[in-house]
């Protein structure tokens, strides 16, 4: 059995006095698609940042392909460049990720920082823009893009580096249905590519399509981990993790009652 | 392009190319120094922090602020910048905002970028920081004293910036004429330029800066005090004392506002007589009137005659020689004097290592 | 009374619209739009300096005409220039120049107006109008990111170019946040507020914006590091000067030289 691509041992992380991540131990196999489920505040985003080497644990250890992720390791350029090329993070808020004046500059940012040659950058960026169908936007400034377009640019800016690992923070949040479905198609498509994809989301409807493995986070701890189908069937678990809710509603003309449910999207 | 004169972004054509070049030259070392200091203090955070903060400053400059007295005005935000980020980041952040305003939005001239940055970003930031540090001292972060300090910092900063601009304008007609004697650039000499600029800033623009600086610090004290820590090293974190607040307000207000009102005092100040005054009949009448109707001696006292040649003040009679009107020379001196006093206070404060309360 | 909120909203919207229009014109077909940004930055800046330095009114007037012709050839309508540049400058600088007509010492020509006063006012207004027209031309015919990259010809440090670009980008993000905040306040404010309350509202709006801005800059920092940013800025600049650009450069140079010579 090959080495897990990420190994977390007893990881804790503190914001001031709050424990955002509390004693998390986790192995993530290479090439797997993992869904990190949890309500807002459960620690999903923090965990993704720890995995991306942007923050470092206050206690415990994280290893990527056997190499520990520590501040000292990242002090050196070669390791940092190599790691950030191999692991890409798409932030939840695209305005945070699109900080360059034009779409082309944005997608070119990563390769530029890693000192690729100019011709290589230009050809790679054009290829990625074409594949994401946003080539016509290349000279646009980010504030002239729709929500869906911004998300695609954000994805492109990470994919241009051809990473092995994709970390996605709420990829479908605040998107209109059509853009959502485009993103989901992409996520499904990566299933055969050998990429490891870790998606943090609270949208249960996504999970079965995009994940082989599921981890539920609650208050910074792992509440459960396993097969998506099994976990999603466990209503009590989902409710205690604040992933579904129970409030009164009607089915047709029946009297108002209440049972746990989510608000799904429709499949025709 | 703003039609209001609230914060003067000098357009092209008001200052000669030589003046503009000199001010670019004056600004450059500060820009360079600020870049170095910021890189050391903020490291990789410098680029995103400066960019977002400059964008914030840009937006603040568009706020129409309600002021005491019912008017509204615009602020530059230099007080906030200096207090939250420190003087170096403020110099750069405000400069960046000014450059974008000038080039992209046409608010302020291209050749005047050096001048505008020198006045508002550089003089403004340094003055705001100095005044804030001196008045705030080691007061706790949540102390009302810091609100007063912030208000004063904003007010002084903008007025010093305006004074600098006024002097830059005022010397243009002195130096640059065409063949017929017509001024080539800003056409008003110092004795018109200074009061014209200062009136609007001592009242509206200064108040706008004071309101926003004090207001934002008050807001941050309650909601995000960590943002005030950078410029409050050694702040006592005991209980804030409200006692000295009013006295401090009064002292600062007196210092700043009454200075120009000294013009109202007719004649010369008591005791500040030159030896010649004793021979001039008009002056003798004034001295008598101010001394409870006692006649002054027929001749200047021996000691006064002996010592008066010993020291000639840099600005005799409180007016630089090239100013035509003594009254406005007085104002100029008052502002400069205030600035100098504050600078001395800063140094004294640093030398003594600061004292609590 | 929410007059100040309305005026703030109006300023914010005006800025946003101005940027949108500039982008639109910059990407349309026109003479200057096709020119290499570096040539435009250098050439228009040179002309602005000449306008600032000239001692002859006729040179300034001639350069104004040149600017107007370039604008017409570059899909910039005169009405747009009049609204953006010519009227505001006339109002602002005109008001400042007006007293000079009476106050400047010199040869009187009736009604306390002096010849020198008229000339001084003409210089001030003429310079301000011409220089503003030239700089508006730059911004209306060149997308902002290219203007910035072209600044490198003045040896502007790369980090400054990067910061200018990012600032421009985030102006729109913060503008949007500010607009939403003020629109919400306007709809909630009923009746007349006491002045101290109005001031407090304005300051807290600024404070909220500041907090959000600082927080956002932290996130942006993470996003930059996540893609390999280590502190050094690298820019991709793909400007290639074609033959036509060299002609334009020569044209700008000739105009500047002619103006200096004529104005001797």
Assembly state (oligomeric): heterotrimer
| Uncertain runs of chain C | none
Order of helices and strands of chain A: EEEHEEHHEHHHHEHEHEEHHEE
Percent range of helical residues of chain C: over 70%
Shape of chain A: globular
The total beta strand count of chain A reads 12
| Coarse structural class of chain C | mainly alpha
Query: How large, in whole angstroms, is the Cα Rg of chain C?
Result: 23 Å
Overall average residue pLDDT of chain A: 86
Structure described in brief:
With 357 residues, chain B is mainly alpha-helical. Chain B has twelve helices and two strands, in the order ααββαααααααααα.
Description:
The complex is a heterotrimer of chains A (268), B (357) and C (264). With 268 residues, chain A is α/β, with parallel strands linked by helices. Chain A has one domain: 3-Layer(aba) Sandwich (Rossmann fold). Chain A is built from eleven helices and twelve strands. Chain A has helices spanning 44-51, 71-74, 77-86, 94-97, 103-113, 118-131, 147-159, 177-189, 204-210, 228-233, 235-240, and strands spanning 6-15, 18-28, 33-37, 59-64, 67-68, 87-90, 165-169, 196-201, 213-218, 221-226, 245-249, 257-261. In chain A, the strands form three sheets. In chain A, strands 6-7-8-3-9-10 form a six-stranded mixed sheet, sandwiched between helices. A four-stranded antiparallel sheet of chain A has the order 2-1-4-5, with helices on one face. A two-stranded antiparallel sheet of chain A has the order 11-12. Chain A is globular. The model of chain A has no long low-confidence stretch (mean pLDDT 86). Chain B has 357 residues and is mostly helical. In chain B, 61% of the residues lie in helices and 1% in strands. Chain B is built from twelve helices and two strands, in the order H-H-E-E-H-H-H-H-H-H-H-H-H-H. Chain B has helices spanning 17-42, 46-60, 78-85, 87-105, 113-136, 144-170, 172-175, 190-223, 244-261, 281-290, 302-308, 326-352, and strands at residues 65-66, 72-73. In chain B, a hairpin with a 5-residue loop joins strand 1 and strand 2 (72-73). The longest helix of chain B has 34 residues, at 190-223. Chain C is mainly α and 264 residues long. Chain C has two domains: 1-27 and 156-233, no CATH class; 29-142 and 239-262, no CATH class. In chain C, helix 1 crosses helix 7 (158-188) and helix 2 (37-53) runs parallel beside helix 9 (243-262). The longest helix of chain C has 32 residues, at 195-226. Chain C is flat, with a radius of gyration of 23 Å. The model of chain C has no long low-confidence stretch (mean pLDDT 90). Chain A binds chain C through residues 49, 52, 54, 77, 80-81, 84-85, 88-89, 91, 93, 95-102, 104-105, 108-110, 112-115, 118, 121-122, 139, 141-144, 157-158, 161, and chain C through 20, 23, 27, 143-145, 148, 165-166, 168-170, 172-173, 176, 216, 219-220, 222-230, 234-236, 238.
């Amino acid at each position: 059995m090959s080495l897990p691509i990420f190994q977390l041992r007893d990881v804790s992380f503190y914001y001031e006095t709050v424990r955002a991540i509390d004693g998390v131990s986790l192995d993530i196999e290479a090439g797997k698609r993992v869904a990190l489920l949890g309500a807002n505040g459960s620690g999903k985003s923090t965990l993704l940042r720890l995995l991306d080497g942007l923050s470092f644990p206050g206690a415990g250890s994280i290893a990527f392909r056997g190499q520990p992720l520590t501040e000292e390791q990242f002090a050196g350029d070669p390791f940092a460049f190599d790691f950030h090329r191999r692991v890409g993070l798409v932030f939840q808020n695209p305005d945070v990720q699109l900080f360059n004046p034009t779409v082309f500059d944005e997608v070119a940012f990563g390769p530029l920082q890693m000192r690729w040659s100019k011709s290589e950058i230009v050809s790679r960026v054009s290829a990625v823009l074409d594949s994401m169908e946003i080539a016509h936007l290349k000279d646009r400034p980010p504030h002239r893009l729709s929500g869906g377009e911004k998300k695609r640019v954000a994805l492109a800016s990470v994919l241009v580096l051809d990473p092995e690992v994709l970390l996605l923070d709420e990829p479908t949040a605040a998107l209109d249905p059509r853009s959502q479905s485009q993103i989901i198609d992409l996520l499904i498509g990566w299933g055969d590519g050998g990429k490891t994809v870790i998606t943090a989301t609270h949208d249960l409807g996504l999970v079965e399509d995009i994940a082989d493995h599921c981890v539920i986070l609650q208050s910074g701890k792992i509440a459960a981990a396993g097969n998506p189908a099994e976990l999603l069937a466990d209503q009590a678990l989902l409710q205690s993790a604040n992933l579904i809710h129970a409030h009164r509603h009607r089915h047709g003309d029946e009297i108002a009652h209440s049972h746990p449910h989510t608000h799904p999207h429709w499949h025709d | 392009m703003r039609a209001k004169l609230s914060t003067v972004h000098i357009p092209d054509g008001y200052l000669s190319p030589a003046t503009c070049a000199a001010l670019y030259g004056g600004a450059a070392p500060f820009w360079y120094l600020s870049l170095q200091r910021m890189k050391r203090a903020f490291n990789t955070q410098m680029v995103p922090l400066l960019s977002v903060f400059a964008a914030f400053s840009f937006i603040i400059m568009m706020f129409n602020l309600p002021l005491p007295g019912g008017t509204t005005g615009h602020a530059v935000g230099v007080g906030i910048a200096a207090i939250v980020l420190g003087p170096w980041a403020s110099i750069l952040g405000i400069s960046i905002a000014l450059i974008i305003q000038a080039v992209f939005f046409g608010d302020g001239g291209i050749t005047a970028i050096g001048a505008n940055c020198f006045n508002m970003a550089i003089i403004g930031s340094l003055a705001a920081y100095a005044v804030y540090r001196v008045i705030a001292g080691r007061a706790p972060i949540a102390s009302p004293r810091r609100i007063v300090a912030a208000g004063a910092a904003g007010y002084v900063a903008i007025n010093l910036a305006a004074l600098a601009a006024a002097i830059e304008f005022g010397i243009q007609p002195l130096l640059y004429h065409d063949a017929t004697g017509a001024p080539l650039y800003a056409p008003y000499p110092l004795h018109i330029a200074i009061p014209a600029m200062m009136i609007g800033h001592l009242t509206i623009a200064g108040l706008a800066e004071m309101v926003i600086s004090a207001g934002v610090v008050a807001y941050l004290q309650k909601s995000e005090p960590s943002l005030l820590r950078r410029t409050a090293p050694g702040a006592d974190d005991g209980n804030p004392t409200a006692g000295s607040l009013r006295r401090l307000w009064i002292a600062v207000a007196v210092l700043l506002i009454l200075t120009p009102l000294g013009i109202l005092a007719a004649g010369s100040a008591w005791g500040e007589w030159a030896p010649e005054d004793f021979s001039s009949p008009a002056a003798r009448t004034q001295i008598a009137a101010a001394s409870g109707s006692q006649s002054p001696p027929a001749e200047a006292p021996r000691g006064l005659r002996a010592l008066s040649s010993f020291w000639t003040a840099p600005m005799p009679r409180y007016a630089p020689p090239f100013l035509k009107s003594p009254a406005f020379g007085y104002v100029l001196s008052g502002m400069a004097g205030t600035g100098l006093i504050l600078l001395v206070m800063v140094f004294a404060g640093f030398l003594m290592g600061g004292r609590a309360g | 009374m929410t007059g100040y909120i309305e005026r703030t909203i109006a300023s914010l919207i005006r800025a946003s619209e101005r940027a949108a229009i500039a982008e639109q014109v910059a990407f349309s077909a026109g003479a200057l739009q096709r020119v290499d940004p570096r040539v435009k930055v250098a050439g228009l800046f040179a002309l602005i300096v000449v306008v600032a330095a000239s001692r002859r009114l006729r040179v300034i007037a001639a350069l104004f005409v040149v600017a107007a012709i370039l604008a017409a050839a570059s899909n910039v309508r005169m009405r747009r220039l009049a609204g953006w540049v010519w009227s505001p400058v006339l109002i602002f600088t005109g008001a400042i120049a007006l007293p000079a007509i009476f106050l400047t010492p010199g040869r009187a020509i009736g009604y306390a107006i002096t010849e020198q006063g008229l000339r001084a006012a003409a210089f001030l207004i003429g310079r301000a109008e011409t220089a503003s027209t030239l700089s508006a031309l730059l911004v209306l015919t060149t997308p902002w990111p290219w203007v910035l990259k072209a600044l490198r010809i003045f040896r502007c440090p790369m980090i400054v170019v990067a910061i200018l670009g990012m600032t421009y980008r985030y102006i729109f993000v913060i503008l949007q946040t500010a607009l939403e905040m003020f629109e919400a306040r306007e709809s909630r404010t009923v009746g007349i507020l006491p002045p101290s309350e109005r001031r407090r509202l304005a300051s807290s709006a600024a404070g909220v914006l500041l907090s959000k801005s600082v927080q956002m800059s932290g996130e942006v920092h993470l996003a930059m590091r996540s893609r390999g940013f280590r502190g050094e800025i690298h820019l991709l600049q793909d400007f290639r000067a074609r033959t036509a650009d060299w002609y334009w450069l020569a044209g700008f140079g000739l105009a500047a030289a002619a103006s200096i010579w004529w104005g001797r």
